[in-house]
Structure formats: structure tokens, C-alpha cells
Amino acid sequence: MRRGFFITFEGPDGSGKTTQLRRLATVLEKRGERVTMTRQPGGTNLGDRIRALLLDAQSEAIAARAEMALMFADRAQAIAEVIEPSLARGEIVLCDRFTDSTEAYQGGGRELGSEVVLTLHQAICGGLQPDLTLLLLPDLQTSLARARRRNDRSLYEQGKDESRFECQDDGFYQRVYAQYQTIAAREPVRVVTINGDLTIEQIHAAIVQTIEARLHDLRGA
């Protein structure tokens, strides 16, 4: 059986990744593709518990390296339980965040550097890389405002405060944003960047066009 195709969605909080991932999944499923959707942190029972700890606004005292280690623990479980089995079945895997997020947030935002992140990725994830990464980079202040409104709504409607990262200062997010740009420049084939404050429909159209081209090249038809 032909191995599946691994696609990750990246970008700062509020960039619209999750919305675009779900829209793409709908398009692919209507075309008869077998699709697995997952997210990081989360996506497994263990991962959901790690996610609750990492995103909870009350978890303020997590050290930067402990935070990074938890991200990789979540990722290792997701690879073993969800990602690799789905790829082995020939499915398209759509993942909301992967190691690029750790490099951007912990490597850049927390200033731990890229080297330790990439070393851990090789050791813990076996070097597994996405076949394609869709990086959404809208205006930073616009995306942060959107993320904070979303978290306020979640707190009001569900009583969950997952705003631990959104509470970081502007300098943190400027470093995250810059690190994403560095990753995109370093890996221009894998990472396709969609810049600017485009509409949901414009971003979706650009993503579908990119996916169609990549799948055509992969399958030769």
C-alpha cells in the first residue's frame, strides 16, 4: 500500500490554522480521500492531558525546558498512536501544529534556540518530517487579537481558560513570528507560506491549489 501524505498547519495563535485545516479536510473527503485530523498538543488521551496542563492559564510556573519536553512527549505519543498508523494505511494526515511550532514557540519565543529543538526532534520523533507544511502568517497584532477574543469566548462559554500562551508579551510573539519566517526561508520546498490578512476564502483557495499540485506530483496523475 502506498504511504500516506503528511500535512501540517502552522502559524501564530489566531492565524486561522484550525479553520483552514477543517475546510481542507471537508474538500479532501468529498473527493474520496481518507483523512485523519489531529492536533498538537492533544489528539490522544495522553496528549489531551498534556494539552490541558500546557495551555491552562494557571500553569504559569512551567520552566521553558520542561514545557519543551512536554511538547515532545505529546508528539511522540501522537506519532506512535495516530500519525504513523494513519500514514501506513495510506491516509492524508492533517495535523494542527508539529515540531515547527516547538521551534517557533520554545526555540524562538522562549529563546532556547533551534539546535536543541531539532536535536530532540531527531531523537524522539525519528526525524519524521511533514511532506508539506502550510504556514499562515497574517499581521501579528491582528492574529493575537483574534486569539485573545477566542479565548475570552471559550472562558465565558465553557469555563476553560487556555490563554497561557496568549498572555505572553509582544516581544515573545515577535520572536515566534521571526522564527517562523526563518524556518520558511530554511525549508522553502516543504514550507508554503501564506502571508497577509487575506479572507478565509482566499486562504482556503490558496491552500487547495497548493494541495492539488502536491498530490498531483506525488501520484503522477
Task: Write a structural description.
There is one protein chain. With 221 residues, the chain is an alpha/beta fold. It has one domain: Rossmann fold. Helix content is 58%, strand content 12%. It contains eight helices and five strands; from the N terminus they run E-H-E-H-H-E-H-H-E-H-H-E-H. The chain has helices at 17-30, 45-55, 64-88, 99-109, 114-125, 140-158, 170-186, 200-219; strands at 5-10, 35-39, 92-96, 132-137, 191-195. A five-stranded parallel beta sheet has the order 2-3-1-4-5, with helices on both faces. The longest helix is centred in the middle third of the chain and has 25 residues, at 64-88. The model has no long low-confidence stretch (mean pLDDT 90).
Name the descriptors:
221 residues, alpha/beta, Rossmann fold, five-stranded parallel sheet, 8 helices
What proportion of the residues form beta strands (DSSP E)?
A: 5-15%
Largest sheet: 5 strands, parallel
Strand order of the largest sheet: 2-3-1-4-5
Classify the fold: give the CATH topology.
Rossmann fold
CATH superfamily annotation? P-loop containing nucleotide triphosphate hydrolases
H/E element order: EHEHHEHHEHHEH
Q: What overall geometry do the principal axes of the alpha carbons give?
A: globular
Structural class call reads alpha/beta
Give the termini distance in whole angstroms. 17 Å
At the first level of CATH, what is the class?
Alpha Beta
Quickly count the domains.
1
In CATH terms, what is the architecture? 3-Layer(aba) Sandwich
What is the tally of helical segments?
Answer: 8
